[in-house]
Known about the structure:
The protein contains 13 helices and 28 strands. The protein is of the alpha+beta class and 718 residues long. One of its GO terms (molecular function) is metalloendopeptidase activity.
Amino acid sequence: MAKFFEKSLDKLKNRKRPSEEIALQEQEEVTSTEVQQANQRQSMISDLENLGRSPENDFLKSFPKTPTQIAEEEALARVAQEEAAMREKLEQLAAEESTKKIAEELDKQKKEVREPEQSGKENKRAHRVIGNSKAEKRAVREINSLEKQFADFIISFQDMTYILGKSILSEFVHVGDFVKTGFRNLRSHIFWKIENYYSQYPEKRWERHQKNRKLMRQLIQTKNTLIAKEKATAARMVHFINHLDRTNEELADKTTVIVTVGNEKFNLAREWAELNKAKLLMHFAVVVAVVLCIAAVFNYTTAYEYAYNGRTLGIVEKQEDVLKIVDIVSRQLSKEHSVEIYIDRDRDITFQRVLSLNKEIDNTEDVLNKLTYMKDMSAKAYGIYVNGIRVAIVDSKKTAGDLFDEIESEYLSSAGTVQYESVDFKEKVEIKQIDTKLGRIQNPEIVRQKLLTGAVSQQTHEVKSGDTLSGIAQAYGMKISDLKEANPTLNPEKLSIGQKIVLTKPAPLVTIKTVEVATYRQEIPYSTEEQQVSTLYKGESSVKVQGVNGEEQVTARITRENGVQVNTEILASQILSEPVAKVVLKGTKELPPLQGTGSLKYPVSGARLTSKFGTRWGRMHYGIDLACPVGTAVRAADGGTVTFAGYSGSYGYVVKISHGGGVVTLYAHNSKLLVSKGDRVYQGQQIAKSGNTGRSTGPHCHFQVEINGVPKNPLNYL
Length: 718
C-alpha cells in the first residue's frame, strides 16, 4: 500500500500541471494570433498608403481611419492582451499554490500510512484526498475558462467602443474642418468684396483711412487724458491721506491735554469735598427738603383732568380712580346694550395735570356714572350692507338675521300648495362686524322699516279714457295726496287722455327673490267671433253670445320679487272646463249722414224721466234727467260734430255735439267717453256710457238742448 502511494506521488510530481498545459496552449494561440494580426496590419498599412492613388479606390477617400489610428488601435489591443496574459499568470500561480498544498497533504498522509495500527483509516483518507484534488482541478479549469471568456468579451467590447468613439470623433473633426473652411471662404469673399469696392472707389479708401487715423488720434488723446486724471486723482488721494494723518495726530494731542486737565480738576474737587464734607451734606439736605415741600404743595393743589376720546369728563385726584373701573364700565355697558363695548386704557382715556383749587373732584361713583351714560363709547356692532353700501347698524348678528327672517316672512305664502325651491336676496346682502360708537346702533324696528321703505320707486301712468285720479290712486295703492305731491301741476278735474302721471312711492331696500312651485286654478280666456249683419250700421256692434272663460289647473314654477310675479314657467296643466266663445255682431249697413237731420231722438233707451226743464230747488235746471244704470249706452240725438269731450266741473264727464243751424246737444254725468273733440258722429251712434260723475244724486244722463246758445226744453224737440 505504501509503494502504491509513493508511485502515485512520483507521477504527480513528474506530471505537468493542468494550468501549465493551458498556459502553453494559450501562449501558442496568442503567438499564432499575433502573427495573423501582424500580417493583417502590414496589409492594411500598405492599402491605406496606396489609398487614393488609383481611380477605382476613390470611394475609400472618405474612410474615417488612417494608418495612425490603426496603429493606436493595435497598441490598445496589445495592452489588452498583456493584461490578459498577466491575469492568466496570476491564475497559474494560484493553481500552483493549490497543487503545492495538495502535495504537502499527500506527504503527510504517506507518513501516517506507515503506521500499521491505522493503515485502514489512512487508506480511506488518501482516497478522499485524491478525489478532492481532482474535483478542485476540474473546478479550477472551469473557472479559468469562464474568466478567459469574460476577459475576451470585455476586450471585444472595449475595442468596439474605442472604434465607435474614434469614428464619431473623426466625423466631428470632419464637420469642424468643413465649417472652418466655410468661414474662411466667407471671410475671403468679404475681403474680396471690400477690396473690389475700394478698387472701384479709391477716394472711399482714402476717406476710410482718414477716419481711422482720426479715430486713432481720438483714442490716444482719450487714453492720455485718462492717464493724466488718474495721476491727478492719485496725488489728491495722497494729499488727503497725509492731511487726515496730521489731523488725527493733532486730535490725539488735544485729547491727551483735555484728559490731563480734567484729571487735575477732578482731584482738586475731590480734595475740596473731603475738606467740606459737613457743609455739603447740610446743603444737600436743605435742597431735598425744599424739593419735597414743593412736590407736596404741587400734589395738593393739582389733580388730573380725564377725557374719553378727547371729550373732557371731569377731574379726579388720581389716575387709578378712572383706570380701575374701565373694565367694570365695559362689562356693564356690554350687558345693557347687548353689544361688545371696549375701552382702551392707553388710547381712549387721556389725562392732563390741572390746578384743582375751587374745582369739584369726582369720586369713583361719579366716574362710573359719566362713563356709563356716554353715547360715543366705542363698541363692536354689526353693519348691514346692501350691494357694498352700509344701510344700518345693529347690536348683533342674530338681530340682523331675525330682521331678514321677518322681511322674508312678509313675502312668503303660508298656503300648503306652495313649495319654495329657493328664497334669497336679489341684491348682495352682507353682515359685517364693525367698530362704531354706542349711539350709532339703531333700534331693530327702525332698521326693519328702513329696509322695507328706504328706497324710492318711480314710474309713470298714462291716462286712458275713463280714468279718474281716485281710481289711479286706488289701482296703485297710493293716496290722492301723494299723487298730487308727486305731480304739482296736476288738475284732478281736467285729466286728458294720454297725460303722464308720475307715481312715486316708497320701495324696499332689499328684494326678496323667491322661486316656488305652486298648483292653482286660472281662467282660460274665451275667444271672440265676429258675424256680419245688415241690421246694424257700419262701426256698430252688439253681443249675440256672451263669452264664458274656461278654467284649468296649472302647476308652475313662479319667480317673484317682493311678492310681485316676474316670471312663470308652466310645468303641467289640466283643463277643467272649456271656454265659450263670444259672438259679436258687426254692422254692414251704410251710415246715415254725419250731420243734423233736424229731428232729435232720445239719447238713452228705456230711461225714466226724473227731472224736467225749468226751475228746481230754487234755481234753473236747463235740461232733463234720464235715470238709467251706470254703463248704459248714451247715443247721439242727431248727427253732427263733437265740439267738447272731457271733464267739466259739476257736470262731470261731458260730450257736446253741434248739429248745424245753431243746434247743440249736451250729455253730462257720464262714466266713460267714447268720442273726442272733432269727431263726426251720426244719429244713434254711441258716444258715451252713463254714470254718476260731477255733482249728481244718482246715476243718470243729463240731456240738454241749446238753440243759438240759449237752453231750450228738450221735450219740445224730441
